[in-house]
Amino acid sequence: MTVEKNVERSQFDEVMVPCYNPMEMIPVKGEGARVWDQQGTEYIDFAGGIAVSCLGHCHPAMVNAVTEQANKIWHLSNVMTNEPALRLAKKLTEVSFAEKVFFANSGAEANEAALKLARRYAADEHGPEKSEIIAFKQGFHGRTFFTVTVGGQEAYSDGFGPKPGDVTHLPYNDVDALREHMSDRTCAIMMEPLQGEGGIIPPSDEFVQTVRELCDKYNALLIFDEVQTGNGRTGHFYAYQGLGVTPDILSTAKSLGGGFPIGAMLTTTELAKHLKIGTHGSTYGGNPLACAVAEAVVDVVSQPETLAGVVEREALFRDGLQKLNDKYQVFSEVRGKGLLLGAALNEEWQGRARDVLVVAGEQGLMVLVAGASVVRFTPSLVISKEEIEEGLSRLDKALAKLVG
Ligand SMILES: *Cc1c(COP(=O)(O)O)cnc(C)c1O
User: Fold this and answer.
1) Is the C-beta atom of 295 inside 6 A of ligand 1?
2) Per-residue pLDDT tens over the stretch 322-377
3) What spacing in Å lies between the alpha carbon of 252 and ligand 1's midpoint?
4) The whole model's pTM is what?
5) Is the CATH number of domain 73-301 1.10.10.10?
6) Residue 121 φ/ψ, nearest 5 degrees
7) pLDDT of 243-263, one tens digit each?
8) Is 35 within 8 Å of 29 (Cβ atoms)?
């Protein structure tokens, strides 16, 4: 492997806005669940970006789709439509409750569209009073000003001046708080059907059912943010399909493009009609290249064998993490669903998730954190059994180092 001497990590500090603090290594190549850095050091990838690379790196289906489309046409404005966008939209309606699709370029943009649709629908159908958005503490919905305000971490939304109004945050999984608070003024509830960034927190059955029931009672819309949980991540194409509750609007991104930027908002015909001509839009939304890649991703991920494979791989992860915990006693529990798993650190290890990430990196393993005390795993949905074993053995070495 050639060493790219002219590009170094130190340049980040020179030329990049300092809102990130990337690790020292600079990956230059990926294949499946393996990645190599400039020095040729190999890593097993248990992160997949952040739940993005659902088919691993450079999957042939994605490489073919992007190459084929790259030789046809790259871009058209929304003054025209294009074949990949229409094919992808059709497929998304086939794998979900949705009848209509709006394309964006990221999760935040898909959520922005969802929130704007909910507000517009309520204003059209019920009047201007019905504008309250209810969301949940520790929730994450992106970084545009509306979505970050709806997200449940003030640390992310404070300090930017006046916020979009009428947003209420309640505790996740608190049925009584929701019952008490909700009213005819509620326009929509936005939630993740399994909180990702907030620490891999699954909802209780009672909670999701109550949310749906109260939305129906008060004519409020239910928005599921499936940016992280969607596209096979939990072993269902969308996580709602495993919860027995169907939202009115669903946002999807991350794994949808498998590494190519795309997001989408899915909804019903009845709701979609409120975004009339000119009410919303995006220059790159529905871009042919992005849609061609996403179509290839959806084709592979929606196969029953792929989804069943997620459940099998979850078992391997849970089993392996359990064995590591028997050896080192670092986790209080392993939670989540499918390949969206979080190993919560126990009392003694509170606040040390980033230490695990850094030391794992030194052992050739990429993992993520979800808050200060949860180690998160969101690997490729088609990672091989051998790669899972190899990654867990590197995690074993990392934990051995940390335990000292
Ligand atoms: C990552 C994430 C987002 C934001 O997606 P971007 O593509 O970064 O805008 C929104 N919601 C959830 C649940 C996410 O995990």
Assistant:
1) no
2) 999 999 999 999 999 999 999 999 999 999 999 999 999 999 999 999 999 999 99
3) 9
4) 0.97
5) no
6) -60, -45
7) 999 999 999 999 999 999 999
8) yes
Q: Among 138, 146, 197, 249, say which to mutate for ligand 1: greatest number of ligand atoms within 8 Å of CB.
A: 197
The per-residue pLDDT for range 110-167, each reduced to its tens digit, is: 999 999 999 999 999 999 999 999 999 999 999 999 999 999 999 999 999 999 999 9
What residue ranges of the chain are covered by domains with CATH 3.90.1150.10?
10-58+304-403
CATH level 3 topology of 10-58+304-403:
Aspartate Aminotransferase, domain 1 (3.90.1150)
45 lines ligand 1 (CB under 6 A): no
Amino acid letter, residue 243: L
**Using a 6 Å cutoff on CB, does residue 107 contact ligand 1?**
yes
How much of the chain exceeds pLDDT 90, in percent? 98
Q: Residue 386: CA atoms inside 13 Å, Cβ hemisphere, count? A: 2
**Residue 172 zone, left/alpha/beta (φ > 0; ψ -120 to 50; rest):** beta
Token reading at 297: 């991703």
Of residues 257, 288, 312, 235, the one with CA closest to residue 59: 257
Q: Is 230 left (phi over 0), alpha (psi -120 to 50) or beta?
A: beta
